[in-house]
């Protein structure tokens, strides 16, 4: 019921949304603390606008998504711009563990790609992301919030999850996001709003740090 791969498989062909403001905010927050280049994992990269933004700033980016069109569009755009620091993998991060060694990344970045799973799986996915971060490294994550206009629409699956037009979303409260980040040091955690995909939305965004001593 929560496997949404078919919906996303062809979603990105020929689609090139702009760089998200969250990517710029994350880099402003994280980069001053760490010498470039950062090793970045982008979770659910879509057609790769944010991955390419990070690479243009001199960072090494591993961009993953289970949608073939997402991975193809990201790889094609990186090739066209000569951005060799972007690598792509077609992977499902909802089947942890991801096939990367522990403590591989300085930054894990997720823009609207972690609010799709029931509670137990959400916890397992956040745990795996924590495993992949170096001590002291950052997780930047933005999810749709319970204040979003899509909240409550469609079939109620319980636990703030709703299915609408075949698309399942798990809406986060600020408290729910804080619970996912309980084993991190939370640097910023806030409610935001703005446009995504031509529609106004409400979000929770967080910057969290894996403690250095764990
Ligand atoms: C709302 S889009 C966001 C894309 C991009 N981050 C952006 O902001 O434009 C969510 C993305 O997450 C991907 N995704 C969702 N669940 C996934 C999973 N379990 N494994 C890999 N990718 C997933 C989808 O294929 C889609 O590209």
Which terms summarize this structure?
single chain, 214 residues, alpha/beta, seven-stranded mixed β-sheet, 26% helix
Report on the structure:
This protein is an alpha/beta fold. Among the domains are: 1-59 and 71-83, no CATH class; 135-159 and 175-186 and 193-214, no CATH class. Helix content is 26%, strand content 33%. The chain is built from six helices and ten strands. The site of S-adenosylmethionine has 18 residues, from loops.
Strand content: 25-35%
Strand order of the largest sheet: 3-2-1-4-5-10-9
Q: Distance N terminus to C terminus?
A: 35 Å
Number of alpha- plus pi-helical segments: 6
Largest sheet: 7 strands, mixed
User: What's the pLDDT, averaged over the residues?
Assistant: 95
Q: Determine the fraction of residues in helical runs and give it as a percent range.
A: 25-40%
How is this structure best summarized?
Among the domains are: 1-59 and 71-83, no CATH class; 135-159 and 175-186 and 193-214, no CATH class. It contains six helices and ten strands. It has 214 residues and is of the alpha/beta class.
List the helices and strands and how they pair.
Blueprint: H1 5-8, H2 21-30, E1 39-43, H3 49-56, E2 60-65, H4 68-80, E3 86-90, E4 105-111, H5 119-132, E5 133-144, E6 155-158, E7 161-164, E8 167-170, H6 174-180, E9 185-196, E10 199-209
S-adenosylmethionine binds next to loops.
